[in-house]
Automatic annotation (TrEMBL):
Residues 15-170 form the N-acetyltransferase domain. Keywords: Acyltransferase, Transferase. The keyword Cell inner membrane does not apply. The keyword Amino-acid biosynthesis does not apply. Pfam families: Acetyltransf_1 (PF00583). This is GNAT superfamily N-acetyltransferase. InterPro entries: Acyl_CoA_acyltransferase (IPR016181), Bact_Acetyltransf (IPR050832), GNAT_dom (IPR000182). GO terms for molecular function: acyltransferase activity, transferring groups other than amino-acyl groups.
Length: 170
């Protein structure tokens, strides 16, 4: 897990954030399998989506830069966050995944996790958060826009749009 780990667990009201370990793979796979709109943000579902989440890293990035966190409520995995710290440069963190189980959406879970990520990054001197969001994932785009993210119009990709948020000291 990334250097300078917060003291785990992180409690956000009735939510608990905890780094995911390989033994959490089946729970993550179940979470991803149960997303009614999985195809919209991620494309075709597969039996190894959780495995991919655990091992996916940009070329040349060490596993110490991977922040893969489960979002738990009452002992149940209800969401997950995957972020690469210090990528593509030391002052940027890149979000690869933020999912919340269907039945837990719309009540602030995603907002709480994203807010925690923003505070944590800002406290570590990060200047920018970025995320690649599939163009078909309008709900994901509206979610990050609602939280002050902006589309990077210089990024050109047929499938993905890049969204960023500048973090100021505070």
């Amino acid at each position: 897990m990334f250097g300078g780990d917060p003291v785990w667990p992180v409690d956000l009201g009735d939510l608990r954030l905890w780094p995911m370990e390989s033994e959490d793979g089946p729970l993550l796979q179940e979470l991803l399998d149960d997303l009614a709109d999985f195809r919209t943000p991620f494309g075709e579902p597969g039996r190894a989506d959780a495995v991919s989440t655990f091992v996916a890293l940009p070329q040349g990035v060490d596993y110490d830069a991977k922040l893969l966190v489960g979002v738990w409520r009452n002992g149940l995995l209800i969401g997950a966050l995957d972020c690469i710290v210090g990528y593509p440069d030391p002052a940027t963190w890149s979000v690869g995944l933020l999912v919340v189980a269907d039945r837990h959406r719309g009540n602030g879970v995603g907002s709480a996790v994203l807010g925690w990520l923003e505070r944590t990054a800002r406290d570590r001197g990060v200047r920018t958060l970025r995320a690649a969001i599939r163009r078909q994932n309008v709900d994901g785009q509206l979610f990050v826009e609602h939280h002050g993210w902006a589309r990077d119009l210089t990024a050109v990709d047929a499938e993905l749009g890049t969204w960023t948020k500048s973090l100021s000291a505070g």
